[in-house]
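Hi P.,

Sorry for the delay on this. The queue was packed all week, but I finally got your sequence through. Input first:
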Amino acid sequence: MDLGIKGRTALITGASGGIGLATAKLLSEEGVQLVLSDLDQAALEKAAADLPGETLLMAADMTRQEQVDQLVAKGEARFGKIDIVVHTAGVTGAKGDPLELSDEDYQEAWGTDFFSAVRVARATIPAMRSRNWGRFVGITSENAVQPYWEEAVYNVAKAALAAFIKNLSYKEAAHGVLCNTVAPAFIETGMTDGMMEKRAEEKGVSFDEAVKSFLDEERPGIVQKRRGTVEEVAAAIALLVSERGSFINGSNIRVDGGSVQAVQN
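Then the structure:
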């Protein structure tokens, strides 16, 4: 299926692995020019080495507006414009009793998981608006609507991100800029690898046994009894940023295998 975005330019944050890299690969195959960013330039260059299309790679800290602005400026200088933003950069943050977590714990997640999206939107959407075409996709989580007790800092930041992008969607669509979120759950990434390695160690079981017990005990809604793949999430993102998704705005697309068991988004 032709997504109708050949020749467009996409900025992808958190692009050295996981969902960001999978999305970069898919969009590159569609003929999209890429501006890829992450914190580690060497890791970014290694990850992007086999991408087929034209790319600009630049390390940047999304918690600093000046670095976001520099990244966008270099992307626009290289390709003339940025049409698409896929903002995947984020952290899991501290875990524990919500009242015992420190201000710094909350601020870390807030700054990276939520406020970084505000910074990227500030730097990109006005120019998209002026051209009457754009796509902005943020990565939230099942936690935004189904919060887990010990993950308060992550829950709060992801819920705020979902609300912010919904806010953007109200007015920007009038200018051809569509804003949506994708909410994955239990995807095969370094983050869930680390969770399962810790669980395996605590329970004295193998990695695969840890995954199975987690699905049985903690995520009964995932009846497929497996983790999702980054490619499955990237496919949903690709639809949202394409011409094929031209009537999807202000939506939260769950790619969670049914983990969220409520009807509401």
